[in-house]
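DATA SHEET
Item: assembly model
Revision: 1
Owner: S.N.
Input lines:
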Amino acid sequence: MFDIQLMGLLNATLQAATLLFIAALGELITEKSGILNLGVEGMISIGAVTGFITAVNTGNIFLSVLVGILSASLFSSLHAFVTIILKQDQTVSGLILTILGLSLSALMGKQYVGKKLPVKIESLGNIDEPTNIIEVFISQNYIFYLSIFLMISTAYLLKKTMFGRRLEAVGEDSRAADSMGLNVNKTQFIATCVGGGLSGLAGVYLTLSYVPYWTDNMTSGRGWIALALVIFGGWKPYRTAIGALLFGFLEALVPRLQTYGFELSPYLVKITPYAITIIILVVLTIYKGGRTGAPSNIGIPFFRESR
Amino acid sequence: MNKYLLSKKIVINELSTFYSFLIGLSIGIGIGSIILLTQGQNPIEVFSLMLRLSVGSVKSISTSLNKAIPLILAGLGISIINSVKLWNIGAEGQIFMGGIALNFLYINTEISSPNLMIVYLLITSFIGGAVCILFPAIAKVLFGVNEIITTLLFNYIIIGLTIYLVNGPWKDPGSLNFPAATYVGKEVYLPTVFGRLSYGFIICFLCTIGVHYLKEKSVFGYELRISGGSALTAIYAGINAKQKAFIAMLIGGGLAGLAGGVELLSQTHRVSTGLSQGFGYTAIIVAAITGMRPFGIFLVGSLFGALTIGGSVIQTMGVSSYIADVIQATTLFGALIAQFFFTYKIIKVSEDV
């Protein structure tokens, strides 16, 4: 019995972490290029609702995932257009993107509130109550495995490939990158849209697997946690994954605390990950003398002629 | 081959932010109309109802302006912090903290004179907001920790604290469905000026003038601008830039806290998760879209109050209130896009040399 409970906690942790991690990974790629996109919450919502609508209407999981990713990516190109091409403030544009994403998705999903999904995302094995760790991993669906693949490939992409080096060059010193002949605007645009696409994937995971139904404002702050995770992880994929597991663990733990007989207030437990993130951020900044791993050019628009 | 470069215009029209807002608003209304049409509604009918119910009578105007108060106060705070080129994303949390601090004083003191008590309560809410930004401010000036992230994270901590308080120590046993703290007594309600307009609006107007004076006319405002502009200039001028930034952050957080205090004493009358409905986030946008000008914040904040009220009343027609949010967001995006054309010119450069 104890095993089943523990495995249930592990299972819930992995599911919550998957969602947070995918969105955080997208934001990480965007921020690496020097673009801060505070609209993660809105992009997840767009991906979540479009994926859900497609799934209800077509019953095709692959198509739903694709639609969710593409629509969130298209949506994030609005932020890219306003901040990269038109050089407007990234903080403001990102916040507006959040408001627009949440309200637009609520309007689109109005007729789909309470609808049941005809399909679900397959997993390796169908196990309702896993009793050991292997079974927990087997019972995860394909998006979980995809997120592991994305983690490894993004880490490789950032460190070992030309695309990663270009991204870093643009994010660290866009003027130097420009004088080396890199197309700063294009690189940033692509990074922003890739980030949006991954947020969309997180959204699809939310409505097709994690919850699975659609209702207004169902992202409930997960986009903001994803933003915090990027900092927690010091703009590194593996450390971000550890952060996602920690936040996922706490998200899974809170509703279970009472069944374990703890007297701790669940409301206070819920704020600990944020407090931990702040402390880690401060400690990292002091320890590394101001270098937290943040791209130097983050939030600063690039002007070609200001060379 | 021709290339296009951007160049900042040397002379920027003083009223450009206002024009961009109007252009944005027409784009927002246009897109809103399309959405209304797809939902089978008559846009003209809906918009005229929105207009009538948000600014059509003394009662509705005062309701709209009441909604604008927290936006304007928090927006003013954000604009002060932005004069040292820092962002405060934590206004939402500071609004809640203002309410929490106010309620804390209220339940722990005896009331002798209600009027004096209101003043004390509002000062406490200001201090509450300032305390809420204290940690991000210290972390910023001492260690250089990114304030966007710390202020943002504090929102979650403070909202978490609010949820804890209204479900635990401060829980009103009479409020069953919606967890909230006990109401404050009627004697400390903010009185109304006319209609439903609370005295908060007077406070709000005075703060606007005060912040305008502080930012534009005072020595302190000048020092803030220099500190935000260039670290070296600040050193040459003998200005302690870090100290100025620290004070600016505390004042800015305090104003957001005051927004929470006014909102509690005039509207909600108790601490609950409904104390702020995203005012802190909207305030950032209001402040930014007006180029951080205090009177602009006052004007655009009032318009946003009306838009919010208009959005909530069209629900009675069976129109989703989210349409108002979409109009708001598209207005802002439209204004940002329009702003581009007021601040930059596009130059065609020939690369064949």
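QC remark: The CA atoms of residues 3 and 349 of chain B lie 5 Å apart.
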